[in-house]
Design a protein that fits this description.
Pfam families: CDK5_activator. By secondary structure, this protein is mainly alpha-helical. The chain contains 6 helices and 2 strands. It has a two-stranded antiparallel ribbon. The radius of gyration is 20 Å and the shape is globular.
């Protein structure tokens, strides 16, 4: 549980399984076309570099991650950070984000999904600064904060000039607007 907050997204480390087949194997490890620092590992198909030379043999640096993997990591980060919410599962934050994305797609506010790896990382960077586990008292409060970070991500990285507020609100639309904008200001001040 303490492992995930220590991991940065630049150097996300995960266990690997051996892949079968895949590519041309070289018999001569001393081939001058493969310098040792950049040799392709035939076990896990990840280019080794000088920066990851100190990693254990069973770990690898993730070069690419799918949206689902990053959403799972975001959920695990939030579960670890929000220790006062023992019933929170790592999949719930992903469902909240995907529900908003789906609603905006169905309403015609966007032509393609916004929840992509780059945008999930951006949401994570906002959450890392804003979500304080000792202050989050309920899943509803965490959801409100996460959706506020998502709204700001849409505003900053989205393709549209503006987005409707309703899919991002946890509270009633009329009463929740002021609380939502207060959270937006709090995120801006925290980052």
């Amino acid at each position: 549980s303490l492992f995930l907050p220590a991991v940065t997204w630049k150097r996300l480390v995960a266990s690997t399984k051996k892949r079968s087949g895949g590519g041309k194997k070289r018999d001569d490890p001393g081939d001058p076309l493969d310098p040792p620092a950049l040799q392709l590992s035939h076990d896990n198909h990840v280019k080794k570099s000088l920066s990851c030379a100190n990693l254990s043999s069973y770990e690898r640096v993730v070069v690419q991650a799918s949206t689902g993997e990053l959403l799972r990591c975001l959920g695990e980060f939030l579960c670890a950070r929000c220790h006062r919410l023992p019933r929170l599962s790592p999949g719930e934050p992903a469902l909240w984000l995907r529900a908003v994305d789906r609603a905006l797609l169905l309403q015609g506010w966007q032509d393609q999904a916004f929840v992509t790896p780059a945008n999930v990382v951006f949401v994570y960077m906002l959450c890392r600064q804003v979500v304080r586990g000792d202050r989050v008292a309920s899943e509803r409060e965490l959801r409100a904060t996460l959706l506020t970070c998502l709204y700001l991500s849409y505003a900053y990285m989205g393709n549209e000039i503006s987005y409707p507020l309703k899919p991002f609100l946890v509270e009633e639309p009329t009463a929740g607007r002021e609380a939502f904008w207060d959270r937006c200001l709090a995120v801006a001040e925290a980052t």
